[in-house]
Amino acid sequence: RADVGLYRAKQAGRNRTVLESARQLPLAVELRQAIDQGALDVHYQPIVSLSGDGSKTVGVEALLRWSSSAQPDVTTEGLIRVAEEYDLISDLDELVLRRSCSDAARLQETFAQLDLTLNVNVSGLELAEAGYADKVSGILAETGWPADQLVLEVTESELAAESQTAIANLHQLRDQGVRIAIDDFGTGYSSLSRLATIPSDILKVDQSFVAAIRSDSPAPPLLGVIAALSKSLDLQVIAEGVETEYQAAVLTELGFALAQGYHYSDSHPVAALINDLNEHRGLVGAGVPDADFAA
Ligand code: C2E
Ligand code: MG
Ligand code: MG
Ligand code: MG
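That is the input. Now the predicted structure with magnesium ion docked in place:
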């Protein structure tokens, strides 16, 4: 796993990832300390409905943010990989889940008219641990966030469909009302029969498919297939990485109901999120005093 992209490096004018495994251990040590001190941030990116006026926020995705003082160029994906390799992922994911549920619960308490779903990423390794579903219900009870407003996202390629423990956790979570999203869908080489065995509710179409929607070329045929597939399997579908008005229009045409991407909003700390919802999404409404929501 060490040979995959942990660090960005400029090469031939493009962002590329390079092997730098020697930098992993010090990073892991620093990350361990940050987890123990709770010194990590969680930012939130709106998920919007494409129907209606095309800009109603229906949920947010929690994304880990942390900058290593020694190695400021590390990406979130790189951090996650180091956490997985050095056995920190369980504590890291737990911290993000607890923090985001508690942030969301406080937001909801302050702005009663909000009705948001919270999406949180979980490592496939963590999902395959016995007792994971119990841990999630413990955190929900502790923070007061309702199970039916939580979505756990697991990346398609990490889903260990052959792991009985992972499947049992997914069933238990869904029985509690938590929904499951398959993240980066389309890149993990799932067969359709495998997909049918994974208890899931939502497909998040990988952003590479969305990036391929350009006005100078035909829309990728797989997008239409995924839209039809999700409809017949009764799964919700979210398009990730929507950056242009044109992409949003094509996705709407193809029948996608939900989207996420820089075209709508980047991720924000919780205190800035409420401003974003106020100013751009029309969600909170005029009656709400300007956000002095303290993080
Ligand atoms: P993801 O779950 O697929 O999250 C979407 C990624 O796309 C995020 O990158 C987000 O900042 C980025 N993004 C959003 N809109 C756009 C857009 O319009 N264009 C482009 N090009 N990118 C966009 P980020 O935050 O760097 O996270 C990378 C990955 O790290 C995530 O991919 C997720 O798999 C993982 N991750 C993040 N936070 C956590 C966490 O708390 N736990 C675990 N296990 N994994 C996490
Ligand atoms: Mg995700
Ligand atoms: Mg992902
Ligand atoms: Mg994704």
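Residues 89-110 form the longest helix (22 residues).
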